[in-house]
Amino acid sequence: MATKIKIRKGDHVRVMTGKERGKEGRVLMVMPDEGRLLVEGVNLVKRHTKLRTARGRAGQEGGIIEKEAPIQVSNVQIVCPSCGPTRIAYSILGDGSKSRICRKCGGEL
Question: How many domains does the chain divide into?
C-alpha cells in the first residue's frame, strides 16, 4: 500500500538514524509503494557486475560498481535552507494550491 510521502525528488535531506546518520544528499528517486528513497551519496553498496558485450557495440563494463541503495523514508528529514532539518507542513494558498512549509520557521520549501 502506498503511503503519503512529503519528500520529493530533488529535495535536500539529512539521514537521522542508522549507519549513515548525519550524511546529507539530494533525493534521486522516491518509491512510495515501498516507503523508500534513493539519496545521492548515501547508503552506497557494491555490486559485482559481469562484462557484457553487445554485437559490434560497446557493452556494460565489468567490475565492482558502487551505487546507492534505497533507504527508509522515516530515517530522513528534509533540510530547510534557513534552519536545518525539519518536518513539513502544508498551507493552502489563495488560489487553492498547496504549498510545503517548514514547521520551525514557516518558510516555503
Answer: 1
